[in-house]
Automatic annotation (TrEMBL):
EC number: 2.7.7.7
CDD domains assigned to the protein according to its UniProt record, in alphabetical order: DNA_pol_A_Aquificae_like
Catalytic activity, reaction form: DNA(n) + a 2'-deoxyribonucleoside 5'-triphosphate = DNA(n+1) + diphosphate
One Pfam family of this chain: DNA_pol_A_exo1
GO MF, one example: DNA-directed DNA polymerase activity
Gene3D superfamilies: 3.30.70.370, 5' to 3' exonuclease, C-terminal subdomain, Ribonuclease H-like superfamily/Ribonuclease H, Taq DNA Polymerase, Chain T, domain 4
Name under which the protein is recorded: DNA polymerase I
Domain of life: Bacteria
NCBIfam families (UniProt xref): PRK14975.1-4
Amino acid sequence: MVNYITQSKELTALKEKLKDLPYVYLDTEVAVKDFEKVDYFNDKVRLIQIGTQEDIFVIDAFKVERDTLKEFLKEVLESKGIVGHNLKFDLKFLATNFDVYPKVVFDTFIASKILAKGDNSQKHSLSAVAVRLTDEEVDKTYQTSPWWVENLTKEQIEYSAKDIEVLRSIFREQVVRLNEEQTHLKSSGETYKVFGVVNPVAALEMAFLPCLVSIELSGIPIDEKQLSNLIKNSKTTFQNLYIEFKRKYYIDPFSPQQVANFLTKKLGLKLPKTEKGSFSSQDVHLKPYEDKPEVKTLLSIRYEKKTLDKLEELSKYVKNSRVYGEFKQIGASTGRMSSYKPNLQNIPKNLKSIFRAPDGYLFIIADYSQIELRIAAEYTKDKSMIKAFQEKKDLHKLTASVITGKDYQEITKEERNLAKAINFGLIYGISPKSLVEYAKNNYDIDITLSQAKTFHENFFNFYPKFKEWHENVKNYLEKHKFIQVETLLGRKLIAYKFTDAVNYPIQGSGSDLLKMAVVLFYKSLLDLDAKVVNLVHDEIVVEVKQEDVDKVQEILSQSMEKAGRYLLKEVPVEFEINVSKSWSKE
DNA sequence: TACGGTAGCTCG
DNA sequence: GTACGAGCTACCGTAC
């Protein structure tokens, strides 16, 4: 039954009706004119649909009295579980419109992504999930109908209620499927108590969701003055270089064709070909010719342009000296988040200093050290690697001594860098051939193919469980064509390629770890004036009131440590923590 | 003119 | 036999 609520007094009766329920279904309709430009701070929530197993209540936020509604929502939604689809959207609006912050949630959008196990062909809209899991269909025609008009049509009200019906069926099916997953860890937290979900990955993601809502609503502080100055200066520098270049060489430095032609014909440079057969003028291929002024200027032009573009992109998203970006909670099939509008996870190192905490505040910047190697050691149970980490050895140096046969103490910086390349590359199944390229491009180290082969071999002989792991995966794949692999928490992927199968558990466990650390951090924060403002795969950036720095730093350390101990039983985790006025550690 | 794919660069 | 995961911009060919 659908109840359309337009009068404040009806809320009292509704509150009584919902009193004993552990959770409700929730959806909202927001008066957004252009869904490309959702403004979480200014757009208005029109309808709040609350569903029980039997009934659906559609509350018209434009009709009922504001304060009564706020009080009602706070009392009801913060005291029980919430089931919804893509709840980050609804939760952000509940926060900005009504100051309401539900903490115990189940998001069918997130659940659907977890259940997909990396199948990127699956879509996760409410209607796509409904078709896949139930026999119901959803008509989205009214989603973008005018939700701001004074009197809504009967169709609009019915549409808004229909989503709740679909949500019920999806939710029930997802809980069954999530709980069917084989897992060695079982969740016993809120997600279990309220929704009956034992799946630990789902439990983590659902606990993480409200944290992510807080992160997005916080934004990250930026020094607006420094930003505009940088843009101004960078513009001038770039324009001067650009005009000078065109005047001198009569070509456009941004036309790949003209540049390639100029470099090869006029300067006689030897450049490799791209896939399509044209000459490639990538920075890395031009680096060796940096002593030529034409090349040097060209590289500078590119550098300035990149800086300028990035700064201008950032400035598009600045409001009140903060950048409000968005995250996809499961942006990669490994469970990693991705960041967009703008992407705050690929800010060039040299620009991080423009992110500055406001007066009276500081950043705490924490990142896990060599986390993927530690996870690989834990995952493979390789004795040598575990021992090295337990003894707090520098693993890159150790690998360097293993592959070169030199003494651990005598490893040079260059050898350590080479080992770094090998350590990372070999986790992901790099071939000796690619290793040569990789060492060259990323560390500017020249090795021959036969050297690479030797290093490859020495590495696998010293870390035998690594070899075994790769061989097992390879053999299994040859026989079965696909393999299900999982992270330390139990996040799953069906892999068809060797490199995916070996990469996933490592990268995926890293994302389990970071999300868990953030959840634990928020749980212990209580009323301290601190909030997470960015997450970059193995890094947590917290903005904190100056006087709370010590306490918050301690809580953050303990959270990262605890998450580490929960997921890694044999290998210790380590992390760096810095307190700084800006994101660059200074 | 709009869209999709590719190359190239940034980060982890 | 294959290093992995993202987002953003500019360019370029194709379709309308």
